[in-house]
Amino acid sequence: DRFLTQITDGNISTVEIDNRTGQINFESGNGLEQKTTGPIELSDEDRKILSESNASIKFSTPQPGFFQTWLPLLLPVGLIILFFWWINKRAQGQMTGMMSIGRSKAKLYTTERPGTTFDDVAGYAGVKQEIREIVDFLTESKKFAEIGAKVPKGVLLVGPPGTGKTLIARAVAGEAGVPFLSVTGSDFMEMFVGVGASRVRDLFQSARKLGSAIIFIDEVDSVGRKRGAGLGGGHDEREQTLNQMLSEMDGFEGSEGIVMMAATNRPDILDPALLRPGRFDRQIVVPLPELEDRNEILKVHVKGKQISDDV
Question: Is 69 part of any domain?
Answer without folding.
Answer: no
